[in-house]
Amino acid sequence: MKWRSVLLAFVWLGLPLITIGVMTYYVFLFLQAAPEIAHILAPFVILTCLYAVFLAVVAQRLLARVGALLGEKKTTRRVEKDLVTRYEDLQDQIELLSAMRNLSHVVNDAVEFRSILEEVTRIVSDVTGASEITIFLVTEHSLKLQPAVHRRGGVVVFDEDIKRLRIDRRHVYQSLQHRMILRDKGPNQVNFAIPLIADQESLGVLQAMVPLTGETEEIADRIEKSEAMLVALAKHISLAIKTPILYNRAVVDGLTGLYTKRHFQHQLANYFNASKRLDKPLSLIMIDIDFFKKINDRYGHLTGDRTLAAISLIISKTIRQYDSAYRYGGEELSVLLPESDMNDAVLVAERIRRKIAEEEFTTEDDKKIRVTVSLGVAAFRPELAEMKQLIAEADTALYFAKQSGRNQVICLKDGECSKIAETPEAASVDAGEASALPSKRTRRKSKAPPP
User: Fold this and answer.
1) Which of 15, 149, 220, 306 has the least C-beta neighbours within 10 A?
2) In CATH, which of 3.30.565.10, 3.30.450.40, 3.30.70.270, 3.40.50.300 is domain 261-447?
């Protein structure tokens, strides 16, 4: 450096010359005052000059040593800073790998789609420190982006509840359309939009808002690290989302949104075996839409499909969280109620019947119609050897419900059919004009007809 060069020049040249000059000046003064001591001063002057040179050499060595120590200190600080940076990078990589492992566990362990989405947003929040996270998914039929889950702090909301929130979507559609990462830096945060793609299929967009604090260099570094983490996580999130989507496509009926008959048989087998082994209650509700053929004949199959989908939605919203609904075939639906005895199942069935009877359905030409359903209920008994016997009993109860007036709940118990609601005038009412049932309950028993 410049100051070091000046200092070395002073030590090597300036210090000896100044010393010699000062000594020469005083020697001349002494010689003028006392010429007779010249022979005494000459050796002293020579020794002083040699001493000055010696001091210059020592000072140069000391300066060189100090410079080396300062250089080593700077090198040590630089190495220490590099080590800290590498340590932080390694910690970030460990957190990222741990997050990826957790994402794979989520796919393997969680079945319910909302549980997967909630866990995914939690992992992203923990790793990146994002204050807000939203996952937009492409709807299967309309191919539009819809928010599926939103996390702010510890609060998580889904689907329709997100619409009430104010979410910045400016870059979401561009990110999906162009399949590119977009970021919008604000004064205190940066907003990322990262496309979710699996096997060349666009699934949606991950949007994350990461807060920014610190100096300019720290902020720039945080932005780069956050983007790298989100990009790496997005690949695993895409797989985590696509797996249940593919699963749903395999086990969920496209029209009704209920599970398929194949899945019904698989689930019933599991529940039935568990009930036999552990003596746990299990109930089954079979549901059939009254006069569904007349709806199709009078208003068209589009209205029939719309009505079937609407009834399925009512059933899905009416059953309890741990119950599951299925499209058994055509207009026949079913509900599995694990850990539920006959009394619980009857309450659920009656609630379904009443809500459907009270609902107004809309035809393709916007005409309002009413539709009713008949329901048969059966419960597991230890003497049942196979699950098909439970299905047969529920089917028998449903058959009796349709034969004895429709728009009612019938349960089969000990070989007898019990009527749970007062029979309405459903048998003589046209499909487009069925009325809601009275709320008064009666019971009537009769022998079950053959299945």
Assistant:
1) 220
2) 3.30.70.270
